[in-house]
């Protein structure tokens, strides 16, 4: 998981010699050793395809978790306000789906069973989609992260819209009608696996020197810069990681719904993800997870009301919640704390600029 | 040649509307350092204010009726702007700026969503009534200026001139500039920043309402989501001119209108929305302070 150029500096600085060093290295590998088999087992117990409404909603919630946790890296850790997450999601989704659609029928690893070969293709396509989104994040981040404050919000918003307009005008990927017939490769196993990866990654990121630099940028950018933190560099890297996972989520969504449409990646989608991060508490990973699940279930739970009245209250409730939350509980459900931190430390709220 | 001139005429009338909206963004940013996302919705409400007041006002002579509708809608939106400032932004004034920004987005979406409910404006587009008779006013060598374009341009210009006079030649305007320069020092000099900020919202919202009516007259399909794209482009205009700078907002608005008219005229209209954002990104790359902006240094 550290293969993408993000140093995990938590344990490398002062390793004690000998067996202790090995123990510490083992401990950092433990989540992967336990987690991946556990997820595989869980996914084996759960049905593979979205054959029931409940499983369908669970999958959507899972994809939203990946999105919210990834956006939390930029909006929560770094305190930079990005409004273009839907754009990066679209880049990743479209690239990955194009790959599986183009290669899928021709590509079959002879030495593997068909299902495994398809799974491998999906994994590679998702990585490629994530990489493409990460590249887009680099292109957006390099110029715009030099700017301070609200400009980033508006620039990322602009990029998100540009990406959407470009996709709408690209007939290769279906233009405004969308991309249809994507194979349903995103099973619960893959969604759980990517949740695991993104949660573990951002948890470790925050504990690392890199993450501490990001938090310093959030607390006071000018002061961080004065202390010798390369603020632009750190912000750009955080932005690239965040975009990468947004692209992964896009790929998951495309291969889950079996279709991608530019209408799914508007400004409103970005806002939805922002609402999840804000509701959970900026900077809290577990908060983002909980909020993503809550905000996926909420509209589904409201569906009877919608059927009864014939009105779409979803956006009203979303936006009213956002405003009321900012006024009444400006730091979200969990603030910047985590569920796994046992004692709620009382300290001054971090002031994001 | 005449084709180019025609595009420029179209661009000027569109651009003057962008400039009106951009002024609201730039004034609020000047005093609060806040991107007031809800400004686009105030503009939308302005168009609907015109729509409903036209329905309510009896048909008498066209020009005074148009003016009455304009004033009614501007007054209504001034009230809306005041309410938004009082209820959503003022409680957050001493909180981190990110909170205010998220609130601004929330308010903007709330107005859109509520507006789409059937007992307000409803989700489907409405047709803006004809307030003034349209038709070619001047035709010169293949270039025609319609009456609507002339009205649009002249009203926008008149409003901007009035605003300019208000800000640079009145006590409240002086207070606004003082708060924009340094709110704390201004309050030490006996200026009440709360009042000045409220006044800023009133002015910006009234201008946005006027822009809403002008847009409604030229593009008669109005709907609750109409503010989103136009508002964003007006914001781009404000950034292009240097946010916080009044002359910059006017120039930026006109410039964006001209560029958009040229893109639609010579390029493909499907990219017209992307071009504004392309300009935005280019400006931020090359000169983040905008055309007329000053470079501000931040301190710890």
UniProtKB/TrEMBL annotation, chain A:
Please give one Pfam family short name. BPD_transp_2
Among CDD domains, the record links this protein to:
TM_PBP1_LivM_like (cd06581)
Which InterPro entries does this UniProt record tie to the protein? Answer: ABC_transp_permease, LivM-like
The way this protein sits in the membrane is described as:
Multi-pass membrane protein
What are the GO cellular component annotations? plasma membrane
What keywords sit in the KW lines? Cell membrane, Membrane, Transmembrane, Transmembrane helix
Which coarse location class describes where this protein primarily resides? membrane
Which parts pass through the membrane?
Answer: 29-47, 53-74, 86-107, 119-142, 179-202, 236-257, 277-299, 311-328
Q: Has keyword Coiled coil?
A: no
Report the coiled-coil segments.
Answer: none
Q: Which GO molecular function, any one, fits this protein according to its record?
A: branched-chain amino acid transmembrane transporter activity
Q: Where is the signal peptide?
A: none
- Compartments in which it is found: Cell membrane
* The protein's name in its UniProt record: Branched-chain amino acid transport system permease protein LivM
Source organism: Vulgatibacter incomptus
- What lineage, starting at the top, does this entry show? Bacteria, Pseudomonadati, Myxococcota, Myxococcia, Myxococcales
From TrEMBL, chain B:
Q: What InterPro entries does the annotation carry?
A: ABC_BtuC-like (IPR037294), ABC_transp_permease (IPR001851), BCAA_transport_permease (IPR052157)
Name of one Pfam family that matches = BPD_transp_2
Membrane-topology descriptor: Multi-pass membrane protein
Domain of life, per UniProt, equals: Bacteria
Keywords from the named record? Amino-acid transport, Cell inner membrane, Cell membrane, Membrane, Transmembrane, Transmembrane helix, Transport
Recorded hits in Gene3D superfamilies, A to Z, give:
ABC transporter involved in vitamin B12 uptake, BtuC
Question: What are the GO cellular component annotations?
Answer: plasma membrane
Cellular localisation: Cell membrane
Kindly give the CDD domains that the UniProt entry links to this protein.
TM_PBP1_LivH_like
- What residues form the membrane-spanning segments? 12-35, 42-60, 66-88, 100-120, 140-163, 196-219, 225-243, 250-268, 274-296
Q: Name one GO biological process term.
A: L-alanine transport
One annotated GO molecular function: L-phenylalanine transmembrane transporter activity
- State the family named in the UniProt similarity comment for this chain: Belongs to the binding-protein-dependent transport system permease family. LivHM subfamily.
Name used for this protein in its record: High-affinity branched-chain amino acid transport system permease protein LivH
């Amino acid at each position: 998981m550290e293969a993408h150029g993000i140093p995990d500096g938590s344990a490398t600085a002062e390793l004690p010699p000998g067996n202790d060093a090995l123990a510490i290295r083992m401990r950092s590998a433990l989540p992967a050793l336990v987690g991946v088999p556990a997820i595989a087992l869980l996914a084996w117990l759960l049905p593979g395809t979205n054959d029931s409404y409940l499983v369908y909603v669970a999958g959507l919630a899972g994809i939203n978790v990946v999105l919210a946790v990834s956006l939390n890296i930029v909006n929560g850790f770094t305190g930079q306000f990005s409004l273009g997450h839907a754009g990066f999601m679209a880049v990743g989704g479209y690239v990955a789906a194009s790959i599986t659609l183009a290669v899928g029928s021709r590509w079959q690893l002879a030495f593997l069973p068909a299902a495994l070969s398809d799974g491998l293709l999906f994994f590679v396509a998702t990585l490629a989609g994530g990489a493409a989104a990460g590249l887009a994040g680099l292109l957006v981040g390099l110029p715009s992260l030099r700017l301070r404050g609200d400009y980033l919000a508006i620039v990322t918003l602009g990029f998100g819209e540009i990406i959407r307009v470009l996709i709408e005008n690209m007939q290769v990927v279906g233009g405004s009608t969308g991309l249809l017939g994507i194979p349903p490769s995103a099973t619960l196993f893959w969604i759980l696996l990517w949740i695991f990866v993104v949660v573990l990654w951002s948890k470790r990121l925050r504990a690392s020197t890199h993450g501490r630099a990001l938090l310093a940028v959030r607390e006071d950018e000018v002061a961080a810069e004065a202390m010798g933190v390369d603020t632009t560099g750190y912000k750009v890297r955080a932005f690239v990681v965040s975009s990468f996972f947004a692209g992964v989520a896009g790929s998951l969504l495309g291969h889950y719904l079996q279709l991608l449409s530019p209408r799914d990646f508007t400004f409103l989608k970005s806002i939805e993800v922002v609402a999840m991060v804000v509701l959970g508490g900026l900077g809290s990973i577990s908060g983002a997870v909980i909020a993503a699940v809550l905000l996926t279930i909420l509209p589904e739970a409201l569906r009877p009301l919608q059927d009864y009245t014939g009105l779409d209250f979803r956006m009203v409730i979303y936006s009213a919640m956002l405003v009321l939350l900012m006024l009444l509980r400006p730091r979200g459900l969990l603030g910047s704390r985590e569920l796994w931190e046992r004692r709620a430390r009382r300290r001054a709220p971090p002031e994001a600029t | 040649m005449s084709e180019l001139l025609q595009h420029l005429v179209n661009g000027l009338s569109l651009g003057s509307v962008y400039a009106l909206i951009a002024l609201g963004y730039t004034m609020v940013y000047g005093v609060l350092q806040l991107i007031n996302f809800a400004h686009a919705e105030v503009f939308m409400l302005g168009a609907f204010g015109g729509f409903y007041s036209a329905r309510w006002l009896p048909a008498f002579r066209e020009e005074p009726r148009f003016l009455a509708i304009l004033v009614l809608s501007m007054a209504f939106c001034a009230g809306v702007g005041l309410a938004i400032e009082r209820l959503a932004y003022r409680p957050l004034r001493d909180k981190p700026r990110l909170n205010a920004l998220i609130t601004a987005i929330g308010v903007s979406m709330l107005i859109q969503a509520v507006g789409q409910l059937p007992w307000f404006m409803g989700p489907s587009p409405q047709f803006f009534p004809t307030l003034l008779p349209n038709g070619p006013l001047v035709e010169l060598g293949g270039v025609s200026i319609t009456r609507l374009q002339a009205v649009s341009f002249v009203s926008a210009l008149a409003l901007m001139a009035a605003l300019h006079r208000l800000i640079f030649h009145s006590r409240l305007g002086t207070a606004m500039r003082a708060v924009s320069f340094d709110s704390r020092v201004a309050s030490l000099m006996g200026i009440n920043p709360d009042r000045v900020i409220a006044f800023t919202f009133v002015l910006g919202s009234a201008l946005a309402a006027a822009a809403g009516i002008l847009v409604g007259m030229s593009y008669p399909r109005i709907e609750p989501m109409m503010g989103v794209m136009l508002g964003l482009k007006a914001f781009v205009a404000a950034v292009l001119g240097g946010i916080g700078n009044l002359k910059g907002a006017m120039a930026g608005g006109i410039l964006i209108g001209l560029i958009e008219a040229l893109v639609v005229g010579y390029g493909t209209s499907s990219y017209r929305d992307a071009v504004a954002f392309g300009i935005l990104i280019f400006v931020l790359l090359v000169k983040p302070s905008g055309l007329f902006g000053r470079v501000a240094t931040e301190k710890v």
